[in-house]
Every structure is written in C-alpha cells, then in structure tokens.
Amino acid sequence: MALVLGTNCGFVSSAPSADPGGSNYEFDSRAAALKDVSPATATKITEIGVWIDAATEEANIDLAIYTHNAGDDNPEAIVVGKVNVAKGTTAGWKKQSCNITISSSTTYWIAVQLDSTATNTYAIYGEDVGEKWDIKVSETELTDPWGVSVATYGDKVFGVYAVWEAAPPAGMAGAMTTNTGYWGW
Known about the structure:
It is built from no helices and twelve strands. By secondary structure, the chain is mainly beta. The strands form two sheets. Strands 2, 3, 5, 6, 7, 9, 10 and 11 form an eight-stranded antiparallel β-sheet that branches. A four-stranded mixed β-sheet has the order 1-12-4-8, with no helix packed on it. It starts with 9 loop residues before the first strand and ends in a 19-residue tail after the last strand.
C-alpha cells in the first residue's frame, strides 16, 4: 500500500487503519505539516492522526490544523488549539478526537510534532502526488504561528490525516429531537 491523499493522508472521510507503507523519515524533535484542500462539504475535523513507523520509547505528539499563508505557501496559524496524544511504545496510527471548525474548499495544513525519543522514531512520506509538506527541526511543540521552515518537499505527502465531517442538511439540525404525536395510523 502507499500514502494516498484523501484515503490515508490529508483530509479523509474515515480514519485509516492499515499500514500505509511509504518511506521512513526520522522524526524525533521535528514538526511536519501537510498541505491539503478541505473537501467541498467539510465543516468540521473530528479526529487527527499520524503514522509512526517504529516501536520506540514513550513520547508526546502534538497535532493541529493550520491556516495557509498564500504569500510564502506555508502554514500560518493554528485554527483552534493543539490536540495531544501519547505515542506509546508501538508502531501504528496515533490519533486523537477533536472538534475543529473549518471552511469548505479551503487550503489548510495538517501538522504534527513529536518529542525526542532515545531510539530514532520514524514517520513516513510518499512521493509524486501533487502536494507538499514542510518541516522544522529541534521542535518541542507546535508553534503558533508556524514560523520559518527548515525544508519544504514539493510533490510529496506526509503520513498525517484529519477526519472531516459535513454539516447536516439545511433545516435538519435538531428537527427530529422529540416524538410529539402520532401520524394517524
């Protein structure tokens, strides 16, 4: 399997569960952000996650959604606070529920930061898919604003995702909350 934007990285409609494959990227004390455009009906992020490709010591992971800075084509500011997840000591998807309001058809950056571990911890990236990811090194948390990137990798994706949700149809929110009578049966 490979990293596929909209399936197991970027904005996804359901959380991935399988090993996405990809190339290893040493990730200790680094931050990375993947650029993607929110789907046309997306209004909320309900979960953010990252693939960790190595069983290493416990560490802290920060995850967030950033706005897009069109001037320098990089992340800008955190949309709503960071979410935090413990990495644990196993490889796999590390994820956290959240409630982040977003706008549809808008460019965002899905970002992750991992604290240092004694043994190298690896995340993953994939090639040639039309998006890009940014990195910063020697990071102990996700900063707001993002600041200066150390490197930008064009035409690549990073193994991070955000599960999105659409707004309920107009007029449906709360419309079926009580049963107040019979329909004449």
